[in-house]
Automatic annotation (TrEMBL):
[4Fe-4S] cluster binds at C112, C122, C125. This is Elongator complex protein 3. Keywords: 4Fe-4S, Acyltransferase, Iron, Iron-sulfur, Metal-binding, RNA-binding, S-adenosyl-L-methionine, Transferase, tRNA processing, tRNA-binding. Binds 1 [4Fe-4S] cluster. The cluster is coordinated with 3 cysteines and an exchangeable S-adenosyl-L-methionine. The keyword Ligase does not apply. InterPro entries: Acyl_CoA_acyltransferase, ELP3, ELP3-like, ELP3-like_N, Elp3/MiaA/NifB-like_rSAM, GNAT_dom, Radical_SAM_C, rSAM. CDD domains: Radical_SAM. It comes from the Eukaryota. SUPFAM superfamilies: Acyl-CoA N-acyltransferases (Nat), Radical SAM enzymes. Pathway: tRNA modification; 5-methoxycarbonylmethyl-2-thiouridine-tRNA biosynthesis. Its EC number is 2.3.1.-. Belongs to the ELP3 family.
Length: 476
């Protein structure tokens, strides 16, 4: 009868359980191997296995200082079992539940651009070079997960992007389709040379190529195995004018996240926002005309507003077509050390809502959400002149599937995107009477649209439509 030979000793604990003492590296390898084998046995026998219990048992048996990490277990799964086990082992499946791996990155810390005109930052804003939170970007404390990854990477865009993509891959996620979210203050206020450097390195992190300019980086990114299907940039209304929009289109940007916080002129003034409500309306119009998807950041519970006026603010936001956006993020006001709001709070000049009252307010705001449909926009982009309709987003939701792969149990790559585009072309032809349909797309999805008969015109994928013979009734 054969026996395993190892350098260690077997210990019988007081509870009667066997423990094996080995050199640390060997002990960890054996523990991971046992966990993986137990998972495989569970698949063979059709049984559910408690992964956390397995990890703790193996750590106890081999007297480990910590339980095996998920990435270590995933790396040890044999190739023939990966397709079965990885969906069960995938950490935080919500990360790619929308079909896309979202990768957040941060630009270097820089002062808020409106300090030059208002003399200070917004009263509730933490972070930035002059704040109590050292080495953090404007609007962030430095303790957010994205902030900590950026600080570890010394705000290098390539290291941030590459590191996060590799991390998601090791955790079992498909990273064939990536959307970047560019955070860290007002990116468009930074010098154009730095902006070009930052965006170029994001695309290079996916393609592996070392580019000399943004245009070259995008060309290689289009051919990359890991596709950049979208780029979101955080900005402000006063840095979302025509010149800024043109630059963002050249970066491959498809969505804007706009810091607005309040649609009341007096609140914008009292909180030192540095822009007017009229500028908010103007930038929303310009961004939608250019085909961007627009997400608005709003902040209830600001000073001198009150519960009823807060609710009325959101009612106006949803009902007034000058404000309506594609997405909304709610950021209830926080009092953070080192801010102007903190000083007001210490002096008793500001009191935030009780948590129950705030929850009630948010619930009532969500109840106001209307199922509106945006109509066609007049556009000043040269590529969109004439009778042209614009598709601002095509998204088939579902667990992320690798490019060119198929899974009958998943919604992605089953032809739904093609059907949606055919419907959009029909609406553009027969209802809008358009002769052209333009799509604002991420650089990594341009090949997909080329297969559907689109070509690159400026920064848009465009298809010429046949003139409709007569109006048709919309499908129901």
């Amino acid at each position: 009868m054969g026996v395993d030979v190892f350098h260690g000793k077997v210990i019988l604990s007081n509870s009667g359980k066997v423990k094996v003492q080995l050199p640390p590296d060997e002990a960890r390898v054996r523990a991971i191997a046992e966990v993986v084998q137990a998972l495989i046995n569970g698949v063979r026998e059709g049984k559910d296995v408690d992964l956390n219990a397995l990890k703790m048992q193996s750590a106890s048996k081999y007297i480990l200082s910590r339980a095996p990490k998920l990435v270590e277990i995933i790396a040890a799964v044999p190739e023939e079992y990966r397709s079965i086990l990885l969906p069960q082992l995938r950490a935080k499946p919500i990360r790619t539940a929308s079909g896309i791996a979202v990768v957040a990155v941060m630009s270097k810390p820089h002062r808020c651009p409106h300090i030059a005109t208002t003399g200070n930052i917004c009263i509730y804003c933490p972070g930035g070079p002059d704040s109590d939170f050292e080495y953090s970007t404007q609007s962030y404390t430095g303790y957010e997960p994205t902030s900590m990854r950026a600080i570890r990477a010394r705000y290098n865009p390539y290291v941030q992007a590459r590191g996060r993509v590799d991390q998601l891959r090791k955790l079992g996620h498909s990273v064939d389709k990536v959307e970047f979210i560019l955070m860290g203050g007002t990116f468009m206020s930074l010098p154009s040379e730095y902006r070009d450097y930052f965006v170029r390195n994001l695309h290079d992190a996916l393609s592996g190529h070392s580019s000399s300019n943004v245009k070259e980086a995008i060309a290689y990114s289009e051919e990359s195995h890991t596709k950049c299907i979208g780029l979101t940039i955080e900005t402000r209304p006063d840095y979302c004018l025509t010149p800024h929009l043109k630059d963002m289109l050249s970066y491959g940007c498809t969505r804007l996240e706009m810091g607005v916080q309040s649609i009341y002129e007096d609140v914008a003034r009292d909180t030192n926002r540095g822009h007017t409500v009229e500028s908010v309306k103007e930038c929303f119009c310009l961004a939608k005309d250019a085909g961007f998807k627009v997400v608005c950041h709003m902040m209830p519970d600001l000073p001198n507003v009150g519960w009823e006026r807060d609710l009325e603010c959101f009612r106006e936001f949803f009902e007034n077509p000058e404000f309506r956006t594609d997405g909304l993020k709610l950021y209830p006001t926080l009092v953070i050390r080192g801010t102007g709001l903190y000083e007001l709070w210490k002096r008793g000049l500001y009191r935030n809502y009780h948590p129950d009252k705030l929850v009630d307010l948010v619930a009532r705001i969500l109840a106001l959400l209307p199922p509106w449909c945006l109509g066609p926009d007049d556009s000043r982009q040269p590529e969109l002149r004439g009778r042209c309709s614009v598709v601002r987003e095509l998204h088939v939701y579902g667990t992320a599937i690798a490019v060119h792969a198929r899974d009958q149990g998943k919604f992605q790559h089953q032809g739904y995107g093609t059907l949606l585009m055919e419907e959009a072309e029909g609406i553009a032809r027969f209802e809008h009477r358009s002769t052209k349909l333009a799509v604002i797309s991420g650089v990594g999805t341009r090949h997909y649209y080329r297969k559907l008969g689109y070509h690159l015109e400026g920064h848009y994928m465009v298809k010429t439509l046949e003139t409709a013979p007569s109006r048709r009734k919309r499908r129901t």
